[in-house]
TrEMBL record:
One of its GO terms (cellular component) is ATP-binding cassette (ABC) transporter complex. The gene is ehuD. CDD domains: TM_PBP2. It is found in: Cell membrane. It comes from Streptomyces griseofuscus. One of its GO terms (molecular function) is transmembrane transporter activity. This is Ectoine/hydroxyectoine ABC transporter permease subunit EhuD.
Length: 216
């Protein structure tokens, strides 16, 4: 087996296109999962079980079904009900929704780790409930959960190749298409593997820097 640098050169334009799609899916999916995860957490702390029970059922169902099944369902079943979205939008929503059920547990742990004295102090100061959450509880909780949330960002990155099954040409999709057209698999798949390693490493460095900044 010989390494073909011409194949690498020919693949690079497709690689950059796939990289852009991968980063878009990762950024938007992460934002959605973090936002939805916090919403689920707050709803699960609602005083009425008529709010907690439906949220618990939905999040348990999503967490215990494979992301691949959810991708197929959203992309192929929803259009039969009149709900049609682009492949990338569907993939972003699927990743964000799926991982929000995990980030929900991270937020819950962070909130429960806030000392009871902080709640008591907010009550003693007669702070409104909204002010207690936004100014006292959530800032402390989020600082505690940054490392765990960062781990899920990397997990989402490694799951972006699944979007290929709903026709999204992210990095692996581009590599697969190139390989089938040229019958050269080693070069594009190696480039993709190295790219995933570098992106994961850079993401971990950024998250560590963010963690140090928030801890100050």
């Amino acid at each position: 087996m010989t390494w073909d640098w011409h194949a690498v050169s020919d693949f690079m334009p497709r690689f950059w296109d796939g990289l852009l799609v991968t980063l878009q899916a990762l950024a938007l999916g992460s934002l959605l999962s973090f936002t939805l995860g916090l919403v689920w957490t707050l709803l699960m702390r609602a005083p009425t079980r008529w709010v907690r029970w439906p949220v618990g059922v939905v999040t348990e169902f999503v967490r215990n079904t494979p992301l691949l099944v959810q991708l197929f369902f959203l992309f192929y079943v929803l259009p039969e009900w009149g709900l049609t979205f682009s492949a990338l939008a569907t993939g972003v929503f699927a990743i964000g929704l799926h991982y929000s059920t995990y980030t929900m547990q991270v937020y819950r742990a962070g909130i429960e780790a806030v000392p009871v004295g902080q709640w008591e102090a907010a009550t003693a100061l007669n702070l409104p409930r909204r002010r207690t959450w936004t100014a006292v509880i959530l800032p402390q909780a989020i600082r505690r959960v940054i490392p765990a949330l960062g781990n899920y960002v990397i997990s989402m990155l490694k799951d972006t190749p699944m979007l290929m099954v709903i026709t999204v040409l992210e990095m692996l999709g581009q590599a697969r298409l190139f390989s089938q057209q040229r019958f050269q698999f080693t070069e594009p798949l190696t480039v993709i593997g190295v790219a995933f390693i570098l992106i994961s490493y850079l993401a971990s460095l950024l998250l560590r820097a963010l963690e140090r900044r928030l801890v100050r």
